[in-house]
Amino acid sequence: AQSVTQLDSQVPVFEEAPVELRCNYSSSVSVYLFWYVQYPNQGLQLLLKYLSGSTLVKGINGFEAEFNKSQTSFHLRKPSVHISDTAEYFCAVSDRGAQKLVFGQGTRLTINP
Amino acid sequence: DTAVSQTPKYLVTQMGNDKSIKCEQNLGHDTMYWYKQDSKKFLKIMFSYNNKELIINETVPNRFSPKSPDKAHLNLHINSLELGDSAVYFCASSHRDRENTIYFGEGSWLTVV
After folding, report:
1. Subunit contact B41:A101, Cβ cutoff 8 A
2. Rounded-to-integer distance, Cα A32 and Cα B65, Å
3. How far apart (Å, rounded) are the C-alpha atoms in residues A22 and A67?
4. Of B59, B37, B6, residue with least CA distance to A103
5. What is the mean pLDDT of residues B67-91?
6. What CA–CA distance (Å, rounded) separates B90 from B45?
């Protein structure tokens, strides 16, 4: 069975500072990895995904993530955050071919001015 | 053009009532899902349908009955609503033979009083 652990439930950061949201997963098979963002009272929006190929993936809004197979991690980073990045961020994993996402618990990113 | 649309967005109802949430996708996808997000923001799959056939049914009370009249629609009917059913319900879709990426609707906020 797959599982996803987001190591921080809340991350407060000052505006224009860099941020890293951590995600570790466990799976016995090859996986696809995703980050979704949920702005307050809104739905889930896909930020980026890793399916295969380059382990560094770039997404929308200046976010990027790096797949590390040996560490079973998929951490999300942004070099300089903006107030508008305040949201809940979810890491998710799916087995290749099994169209079912298993989500982490979410990390609330709060940007302070 | 909303890719995955669900209605209603907000629903407040009394215990014991029966209610439905409707979902439609215009992405040409062949697989649709219902996910539940609880009060702690945890997201978990409830059901998935591929070409109108039930694929995943994750230990959901049988008061919840999904119905897929065609590939583009997946409705969720809930009988005898309980306080614990209060949550955000997300409809989503993907295509089995293309990228393994699931796209979510805006969510339906259900409050049972």
Report:
1. no
2. 29
3. 11
4. B37
5. 95
6. 9
**Average pLDDT rounded to a whole number, residues B65-79:** 94
Q: Is B1 on the interface with A (CB under 8 A)?
A: no
pLDDT, position A80: 97
pLDDT tens-place string over residues A51-71: 888 999 999 999 999 999 999
Q: Which residue has the tokens 């219902």?
A: B34
User: Hey, which residues does B62 pair with through a beta bridge?
Assistant: none
User: Looking at beta carbons, which residues of chain A come within 8 Å of B9?
Assistant: none
User: Which residues of A make CB contacts under 8 Å with B?
Assistant: 32, 34, 36, 38, 41-46, 49, 51, 88, 90, 94, 96-97, 99-101, 103, 105-106
Q: Let me know how long chain A is.
A: 113
Cα separation, A7 vs B39, in Å, equals 19
Cα separations in angstroms, B107 against A54, A73, B53, B70: 32, 28, 23, 20
Residue at token pair 């508008």: A84
Distance separating alpha carbons of residues A70 and A19, to the nearest angstrom = 22
- B106/A43 Cβ within 8 A: yes
Listed in sequence order, the residues at least 6 apart from A18 whose beta carbon sits closer than 8 Å to its beta carbon are A77, A78, A79, A80, A81
Structure tokens at A58: 């770039």
Report d(CA B88, CA B57) in Å as an integer: 18
